[in-house]
Specification:
single chain, alpha/beta, Rossmann fold, Helicase, Ruva Protein, domain 3, 2 domains, two-stranded antiparallel ribbon, 11 strands, globular
């Protein structure tokens, strides 16, 4: 791959990262992971409290990415067909059918944001699973394709009433689960509270240069990152052991406070997860200006790529967030570095 082209796209990526950090302050780690996901061409699950900037961040990123943007709200009465079409009575009293949010932008759809996905029924999750896996959907006796599509979904981790947990197959389709936790520094809190610039979201987002990443050509370029960034045999061994440690952490001497480690795991990361881990790590290395993988590149994306792919026994599943953090940190520390 031409080095000049790699550098040009890296500059685009870093420019958008800087711009996003000026729009949504206090979220630098999450923004870096979001940039990684764009170039790894992976869907993203966001988790955070209410009002922490998830929607603002995605709207700003979608503007920088270019292409069509659609958003739906997860509700208990949402049905699969509501994503594909909607019916209504027009001004002349005649029934009409219009394309729904999935179809209205056609092949230019680049960002589909599903807000509070865990409030939607499993039938809706099933449709979304196909869209994520195949970037296509069947409707009106036709096949509709979305070659540039990335799905972003968020879960409100505060309110759990009338919610449906995502099945394992759906969780595994997300490249990452990114935690949106704003910095608690006094400077950030004061700016968000008193600086009126952050009170007008539409004006904030308009400051992002449209189509910075050129969504129509991003997929082709992203594939070049994967072929250009190389992994040594020692890094391949490192990733293999990380994967094995998610299945049998006890074999690597891992201990977690108040957890019987032999009783913790149902299953760990599968082949799709390990592949996505390497995809994300290669993008991270490229953003750092390296064309070869190093352990810190893998470690930087490990938790976000792996944690939602871990399945614990029921007694520990209720403590998923705390245990997954402790486990992924312990794995990175316990698996020998190459």
């Amino acid at each position: 791959m031409d080095e000049a082209l790699l550098n040009e796209w890296r500059n685009r990526a870093l420019t958008l990262e800087v711009d996003l950090n000026q729009i949504v302050i206090g979220l630098s780690p999450a923004i870096r992971l979001l940039i990684v996901s764009l170039f790894a061409r992976g869907h993203v699950l966001l988790e955070g409290n209410v009002g922490v900037g998830k929607t603002t961040l995605l709207r700003a990123a979608a503007r920088g990415l270019g292409g069509g943007y659609q958003r739906v709200e997860g509700t208990i009465d949402l049905m699969p067909q509501d994503l594909i079409y909607h019916t209504y009575i027009d001004s002349e009293g005649k029934p009409k059918v219009d394309p729904g949010p999935l179809l209205s932008k056609g092949e230019s759809l680049s960002v589909f944001f599903f807000n509070e996905i865990n409030r939607a029924r499993p039938q809706v999750h099933s449709l979304l699973l196909r869209v994520m896996a195949e970037r296509s959907v069947s409707a009106f006796n036709k096949e509709f394709n979305f070659p540039h599509l990335l799905v972003f979904a968020d879960r409100n981790k505060v309110e759990k009433e009338e919610t449906f947990e995502l099945p394992g197959a759906a969780r595994d389709r997300f490249l990452m689960e990114i935690e949106i936790e704003p910095s608690q520094s006094s400077e950030v809190l004061r700016s968000l509270t008193f600086d009126t610039r952050y009170h007008d979201v539409d004006t904030l987002i308009s400051a992002i240069k449209p189509n910075t990443l050129d969504y129509e050509h991003l997929s082709k370029f992203a594939a070049n990152i994967q072929t250009s960034v190389q992994a040594s045999d020692s890094i391949k061994d490192f990733v293999e052991h990380l994967c094995r440690a998610t299945h049998r952490p006890q074999d690597y001497g891992i201990q977690i406070s108040d957890v019987v480690i032999d009783d913790l795991m149902v299953t760990g990361m599968g082949p799709r997860g390990s592949s996505m881990l390497v995809r994300a790590a290669k993008v991270y290395a490229w953003l750092e200006g390296r064309m070869h993988l190093e352990p810190q590149d893998v470690a930087a994306v490990f938790h976000s790529v792996v944690a939602h792919r871990l399945f614990f026994t029921p007694v520990y599943e209720l403590q998923r967030s705390q245990i997954s953090h402790a486990l992924t940190q312990a794995i990175i520390k316990s698996v020998p570095l190459p």
